[in-house]
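To: structure desk
From: M.T.
Subject: fold request, one chain
Message: Could you run this one when you get a chance? Sequence is below, nothing fancy, just the single chain.
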Amino acid sequence: MSMLTPPGMGGKKYRITGDRYPRMRRPRRDRRIALAVVASACVLGVGAWGAVQLIDVFTGHGGTAQAAQEKHPCPAGQDGGKPRSTAKPLPKPKAVKVNVLNATTKSGLAKDTADALKKRGFTIGEVGNAPAAYDKKVKGTGVLLGAPAAADGPFKVLGTQVTGAERKTDGRKGGDVDLIIGDKFKALAKEKDAKAALAALTAPPKQKPDKPGC
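Reply: Done. Structure tokens follow.
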């Protein structure tokens, strides 16, 4: 027990009893405010994450589409860096039946050309003069004439042998092709050049995979 006389109290004595003294404590209100702020931040974070997930689902950027892309990262049509070609393969020269017709005034030109084509592997059909619709009327190197289906196959193969020949189609149903020799025709393309052109047609296209490991 002690006796204290605080200044300015007029000399009066005051007695303080007990063993408890006042202590400074932070108000409980500040602690509640801090907890409320933390809880609000957590709620806002969870809400934002959920909104992003919903946007991905409805726009198609997430979910099964994203999983499929991660599972199959290679572009469509590629596997192991090897492109898959859907183009119809070109026929071999032996599968192309050629009718060699001479529309010029030079005799024997059709036979010589037919013999040369035969040596290069082509199948020879009719050999003779061109029909009246083309006889002495082909001013260029020549004309390749056949059914519409020949445009994507026989025309390309035979075209490697005759440089600059015009290509036309008619209503025939067969797969044979007419080579109508014109005034500017001198000879077939050089055999090595023709082989190189044919090899370029039949070679698969070279492509690089878009992603490593494809």
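Reply (cont.): DSSP finds five helices and nine strands in the chain. Let me know if you need anything else for the meeting.
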